[in-house]
Amino acid sequence: MTVRAISILGLLGFWFAVAAIAANPTVLPMPQDLIAPISQEIATGELPYHLGMTLIRVVWAFALAMGLGCILGLVMGLFPTIDRWLDPWLVVFLNLPALVLIVLCYLWIGLNETAAITAVTLNKIPNVTTIIREGARSLNPDLSAMAKVFGMRKSAILRHIILPQLGPFVTGAARSGIAVIWKIVLVVEFLGRSNGIGFQIHLYFQLFDVALVLVYALSFIAVMLLVEWVILQPWERRARRWRQA
User: Residue 3 domain-assigned?
Assistant: First the structure.
């Protein structure tokens, strides 16, 4: 925690230095200059509302991408024939720009929540699938053979043999996933939603209000850092614990 605190203080110091050199609050305000606008946005309820809408989209897209990606990656990793059939599809979606998928989903489905969440989910599933597939390929065959010798049920093999070995890969996919998903959600909101952090950033970008752009961007970054430190990193340490036993 001490290292993190010092690192954050260093970042603030860098911000102070750059703002002092710019000497123009319309280009880069000092950190303390954001206190008044963020207090006003909280008092009016605008910041909590838009933050909540973005978080809902992030949670939905994250859950769908992780669920579908884990299933697809496990299947492709365990069954080489299926992997050969689906690998070209995976490569195509891995290299398809996020912006293209977002625009196509809006054109095909409409400017609604379904299109927004679908676009984010489709952007992340290939990455999750790739990571989980590599995890499935690296499963220790000796452990599976031992489980069969002892007559373990398939559900027990999945729970006690496969999932513990996949744990670090799942947590790795989750950590990279949450970082990518919330950024794509902001782009989705920027392009086609009427609420959320991305929408507000678009609004204040049009008004050339740097302070409020920073308020909304930093507020969501703070929430994502909290999720990373409180949920994802402890989960990753727990998932790796069996390797140190």
Answer: no
